[in-house]
């Protein structure tokens, strides 16, 4: 567990409204994590919020040795008028932010004897990106993996090349599900619409599948309902919702 100030070392655009931020501990300490976990950042009061607020962000690094890791990378969707989003728009290399982590259970068990279905929307692909090293090892050992990446348009498909490489080099299934791309195609790697139909086409089976859901709460809720009807329980569906409505949000 770490609780420290992180210093921003790099910031760049990943997609039109999505940025990548790389931090390291201000005292250069180890910031260990398990792929799939997130950290909590505390934002100073700003023009939108008079009091400091906390927000969570999935760790997106691919680290062969995450227990000896010294940098933390996150991918952030910028929300107009969002407290954290406004901070991220303006932050620059060298800025410090208070962080605590790692947290969260959206991690892979050591052994998986089922097919693994990973579904994410937007930056909800971040936990799976940090799992790429583990996934390659598991695919090589015979694990079956299906990945559904949801986004509105093709240019919002963060890390798509890395997931496509996993599909072609390690024989994982991969499909980009584009809800607002006028020329979206229906191919083995692309689908015009939300993730629901492509998930149904995988014929999920509670006895033989382990499903992970991450990102937009409506997507997570819809797919949990669908999978629960099929007989999935909390052990066979892991989930992480990325935000709640502004009114109900805990500060
Ligand atoms: C466990 C966990 C992990 C998370 N990981 C990530 C991550 O890796 N990357 C990331 O970008 N976010 C992630 N989030 C969401 C993140 O914590 C913030 O909620 C998000 O950055 C918005 O914060 P904000 O202060 O800018 O907006 P707020 O001021 O909190 O919200 C402003 C308004 O925008 C709405 N809103 C918030 N997020 C979205 C959205 N994505 N799309 C549409 N409307 C939205 C709110 O409901 C509210 O009405 C995660 C959340 C959780 C709980």
TrEMBL record:
Cofactor(s) required, per the database record: [2Fe-2S] cluster
Example of a GO MF term: oxidoreductase activity
Domain FAD-binding FR-type span(s) in chain numbering: 1-109
Domain of life: Bacteria
Record InterPro entries: Cbr1-like_FAD-bd_dom, FAD-bd_FR_type, Flavoprot_Pyr_Nucl_cyt_Rdtase, FNR_nucleotide-bd, MRET, OxRdtase_FAD/NAD-bd, Riboflavin_synthase-like_b-brl
Stretches of the chain forming a coiled coil according to its record: none
Pfam families in the cross-refs: FAD_binding_6 (PF00970), NAD_binding_1 (PF00175)
Name this polypeptide is given: FAD-binding FR-type domain-containing protein
Organism: Pelagibaculum spongiae
């Amino acid at each position: 567990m770490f609780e420290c100030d992180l210093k921003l070392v790099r910031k760049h655009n990943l997609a039109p409204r999505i940025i990548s931020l790389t931090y390291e501990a201000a005292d250069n300490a180890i910031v260990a994590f398990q792929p799939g976990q997130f950290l909590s950042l505390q934002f100073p009061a700003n023009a939108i919020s008079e009091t400091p607020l906390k927000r969570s962000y999935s760790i997106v690094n691919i680290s062969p040795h995450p227990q000896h890791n010294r940098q933390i990378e996150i991918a952030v969707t910028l929300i107009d008028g969002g407290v954290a989003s406004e901070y991220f728009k303006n932050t620059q290399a060298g800025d410090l932010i208070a962080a605590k982590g790692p947290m969260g259970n959206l991690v892979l068990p050591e052994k998986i004897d089922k097919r693994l279905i990973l579904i994410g929307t937007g930056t909800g692909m971040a936990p799976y990106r940090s799992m790429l090293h583990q996934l390659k090892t598991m695919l090589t050992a015979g694990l079956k993996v299906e990945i559904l990446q949801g986004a509105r348009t093709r240019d919002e498909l963060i890390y798509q090349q890395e997931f496509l490489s996993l599909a072609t080099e390690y024989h994982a299934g991969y499909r980009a599900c584009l809800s607002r791309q006028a020329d979206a195609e229906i191919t083995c790697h692309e689908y015009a619409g939300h993730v629901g139909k492509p998930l149904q086409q995988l014929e999920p089976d509670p006895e033989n599948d382990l499903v992970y859901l991450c990102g937009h709460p409506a997507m997570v809720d819809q797919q949990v309902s669908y999978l629960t009807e099929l007989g999935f329980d909390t052990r066979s569906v892991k989930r992480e919702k990325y935000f709640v409505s502004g009114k109900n949000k805990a500060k």
